[in-house]
From TrEMBL, chain A:
Protein name (Swiss-Prot/TrEMBL): ESCRT-II complex vps25 subunit
GO cellular component: ESCRT II complex
MF terms (GO), sorted A to Z: protein homodimerization activity; structural molecule activity
Keyword match Protein transport: yes
Matching Gene3D superfamilies: Winged helix' DNA-binding domain. Chain C. Domain 1, Winged helix-like DNA-binding domain superfamily/Winged helix DNA-binding domain
GO BP: protein transport to vacuole involved in ubiquitin-dependent protein catabolic process via the multivesicular body sorting pathway
TrEMBL record, chain B:
InterPro entries registered for this protein in UniProt: ESCRT-2_cplx_Snf8, Snf8/Vps36, WH-like_DNA-bd_sf, WH_DNA-bd_sf
Protein's recorded name: Vacuolar-sorting protein SNF8
Complex formation: Component of the endosomal sorting complex required for transport II (ESCRT-II).
Organism: Cristinia sonorae
Biological-process GO terms, alphabetical: protein transport to vacuole involved in ubiquitin-dependent protein catabolic process via the multivesicular body sorting pathway
Gene3D superfamilies, alphabetized: 6.10.140.180, Winged helix-like DNA-binding domain superfamily/Winged helix DNA-binding domain
Pfam families: EAP30
């Protein structure tokens, strides 16, 4: 048999290492595990982006029937990723700022940064600009549940807040207290 | 009565005279020989230049022709890469020097870029495939023979590239200066037979090893050398996978 890429029913292209039996075992050789961890985190982020998944929990590797089955289970070779292995991978991703434990102070659930907060900030600012919402006060809800679906639909508030903070630092946004919580105002760039 | 050489001062002069003419004759003779050799060399060079210009493309493009050419050079004791000048004039005229060095660089490229995955051990077939892919269609066909020859030219660099015979006609190229012991070579050979998978039981039944020996060899390859991967979900319990013996398609 040979090890090749494979396209899942949802149209995601799995790398050839996903067909390797040993990829699902936590390696005792540190160097080998580092390679596996890197491949897993790349795979997780690419898949999350493909399916627009923001959250990953350890249980997703425990039970089947969730959106992660396509990558955590390989029925063609009868292998699966176990939660303790996933936990190790998540820890590494958090240490490399590719994910963040959310809620904080636990280690069984993360938010995935398949776009960095800086990249989300650009998306956010362009969205506000193109929809003519510069200088208006928006609630977080206006952004995460827009009338016209956008790239930001359903974005977790924790990620949104990071993106806004990036913009605040460069004076392109302002955090504002509104009646039912927090709001934001995007500021048009002047003098350029 | 005269003795042949005579006596006295006159005889001495006569002897000197004849010695001189002998020397002159000898000089003349060697000069002719040298000239003759020069002529031969010039002829040889011309023939070579003719050969090179006629066959250069065939040598670079056609692996079978190249192989025959290399063999011909070997039988007459000429190294097509060696010579008085840098690269040698064979190499220069055939552009074979560049060709070989270029191939060497590509081999190093493939070995280094796959080292993470295979621990510095690559199967010859895969190496040839990947080098060919790197060269593209325009680069012509490269054979196992070319790769082996090129690896030999890498030797003076001391990078430790070596071609290993792992049995049943299979070869591997090692690009890390790690000595493989005999047991590891056996494990590699079994992995080759099994598409990359090795277990303690396979080593015990096929090679009549003791369980201790099998375990030690596999553990060393796994932990010390990073030359194989562990699979704890194997249907038979635990297995080891040698990535360089697995067939990757990318």
């Amino acid at each position: 048999m040979s090890y090749s890429t494979h396209t899942t029913p949802s149209g995601f292209l799995l790398p050839s290492i996903h067909a390797a039996q040993a990829f699902y075992t936590k390696q005792r050789n540190q160097q080998t595990q580092a390679i596996f961890t890197e491949n897993w985190s790349r795979l997780i982020l690419a898949y999350a982006r493909h399916k627009r998944l923001f959250t990953l929990r350890l249980e997703d590797a425990e039970t089947s029937g969730n959106p992660w089955d396509e990558i955590f289970r390989n029925t063609r070779i009868n292998r699966r990723l176990f939660p303790n292995h996933l936990s190790h991978i998540l820890q590494d991703m958090v240490s490399k700022n590719l994910a963040v434990y959310d809620p904080p102070k636990q280690t069984s659930s993360v938010l995935l940064f398949w776009r960095t907060p800086e990249e989300w900030a650009d998306v956010l600012y362009e969205w506000a600009d193109s929809t003519g919402l510069m200088n208006s006060i928006l609630t977080f809800y206006d952004i995460t549940e827009p009338v016209v679906p956008s790239q930001l639909s359903d974005i977790p508030v924790a990620i949104l807040r990071r993106a806004i903070n990036v913009l605040v630092k460069v004076n392109r946004a302002q955090l504002i207290a509104v009646a039912d919580g927090e709001g934001v105002r995007f500021l048009a760039q002047t003098g350029r | 009565m005269h003795r042949l050489g005579g006596v006295g001062l006159a005889a001495f002069e006569r002897q000197q005279q004849s010695q001189k003419s002998f020397a002159e004759l000898s000089n003349e003779l060697s000069q002719t020989q040298v000239n003759h050799l020069h002529d031969q060399l010039a002829q040889f060079r011309n023939a070579l230049i003719r050969f090179a210009s006629t066959h250069r493309d065939s040598i670079r493009r056609d692996p079978k022709f190249r192989h025959e050419f290399q063999r011909m050079c070997a039988t007459i004791g000429v190294d097509p890469l060696a010579g008085p000048r840098k690269g040698g004039w064979w190499a220069e005229m055939l552009n074979l020097g560049d060709w070989n060095y270029e191939l060497g660089v590509q081999i190093v490229d493939v070995c280094v870029s796959t080292r993470e995955r295979n621990g510095g051990l690559i199967e010859m077939g895969e190496l040839v495939r990947m080098v060919s892919k790197l060269r593209g269609v325009a680069g012509g066909v490269v054979t196992e023979d070319d790769v082996i020859r090129s690896i030999k030219t890498l030797k003076p660099l001391g990078a430790g590239y070596e071609v290993l015979d792992v049995g049943s006609g299979k070869k591997m190229v090692r690009s890390v200066p790690k000595e493989l012991d005999e047991d590891q070579s056996v494990v590699l050979a079994v992995a080759q037979e099994e598409g990359g998978r090795v277990t303690e039981d396979l080593l015990i039944s096929r090679r009549r090893w003791t369980p201790e020996r099998a375990r030690a060899a596999l553990e060393n390859m796994l932990l010390r050398d990073g030359l194989c991967w562990l699979d704890e979900q194997d249907e038979e319990g635990v297995s080891y996978w040698v990535p360089s013996a697995m067939r990757w398609e990318e």
